[in-house]
Amino acid sequence: MGLETSTDLSVTVAGGVAVLEMRRPPANHVNEALLARIVDAALALDDDPACRVIILASEGKHFCAGADLGEGDFVRDRAAAAEGLYRGAARLLDVRTPMIAAVQGSAVGGGLGLACAADFRVAEASTRFVANFARLGFHQGFGLSVTLPELVGRQVATDMLLTARRVGGEEAVRVGLADRLAEPGRVRETARQLALQIAGSAPLAVRSIRQTLRGGLAARIRQALEHELAEQRELWTTRDSVEGIEASLQRRPPVFRGE
To answer: Which candidate, 203, 190, 163, places its Cα nearest to that of 101?
Structure first.
């Protein structure tokens, strides 16, 4: 059944599983308004007895390429735009329903952060997870300082963050970044299979177990978000950050000078 449809988000519920689909193809860039709609929908589903699991998915080639640094609020006032985005990310931690990210194509920057905020990630071999912040000249955000090492360990997280290299679907499963490897073109179906397995368990027990396992994770992520934003504000004033962002928008290798 369809609950809500907007230009950039649809919400459907069937068989105990809700699907929140981002509709900003091909890159599905996330901004404060879209994230707010995602969180509002997820929080509403917490109180819907017909929903036991949420799948976060996207239309088109890529799951989410993060924020578009070349348009809108990020051009006018990057710090304010990031703060609004991160306030939304903090609200995502209040969702009580288990969430699965169905990740096709690329999950880059804030898109990686969004995927890591979910309880599970489903990928395929061609999926690419990228923490590209250092190649843009600034500090990671979206709570990745906590969520990424929680999933893959500090050493792999450090590798990903300092090199900004692409991690494919098979490696992602191997290091714990993804939980299921789907056959090509079947990410959504594989995510639904996992969702149905969870939905078949007692819903009160599922939420209770999830809350126990997460412990103080929400508080740690909220604290990290504040630190990440402060570091980003400082690094955005550097010439390297200007170079990194311009190089990304111009699709060329950056030349950093440590300035």
So the answer is: 190
Contacts of 249 (CB under 8 A, 6+ apart): 69, 70
Q: Is residue 221 part of a domain?
A: no
Report pTM: 0.94
10 Cβ neighbours under 8 A, 6+ residues apart: 2, 4, 19, 20, 21, 23
**pLDDT tens digits for range 119-163:** 999 999 999 999 999 999 999 999 999 999 999 999 999 999 999
Q: Quick one: pLDDT at residue 1?
A: 46
Q: Is residue 90 part of a domain?
A: yes
- Read off the CATH number of the domain in which 76 is found: 3.90.226.10
Closest CA to 114 of 49, 50, 24: 24
Please name the residues in contact with 77: beta carbons below 8 A apart, sequence gap of 6 or more: none
Q: Which range of residues forms the domain containing residue 98?
A: 2-183
Q: Give me the pLDDT at residue 87, please.
A: 86
- Report the candidate in 89, 28, 18 with the shortest Cα–Cα distance to residue 55: 18
Distance between CA atoms of 51 and 73, rounded to whole angstroms?
34
pLDDT at 3: 56
Residue 156 to residue 5: CA distance in whole angstroms? 38
Residue 8: phi and psi, rounded to 5, are -125, 5
pLDDT at 5: 64
The reply to whether 56 falls in a domain is: yes
Nearest C-alpha neighbor of 194 from the set 87, 38, 33, 52: 52
Confidence of residue 196 (pLDDT cuts 50, 70, 90): very high
Q: Is 224 within the bounds of a domain?
A: no
Residue type, 124: E
Provide the domain count of the chain.
1
- Rounded-to-integer distance, Cα 89 and Cα 19, Å: 19
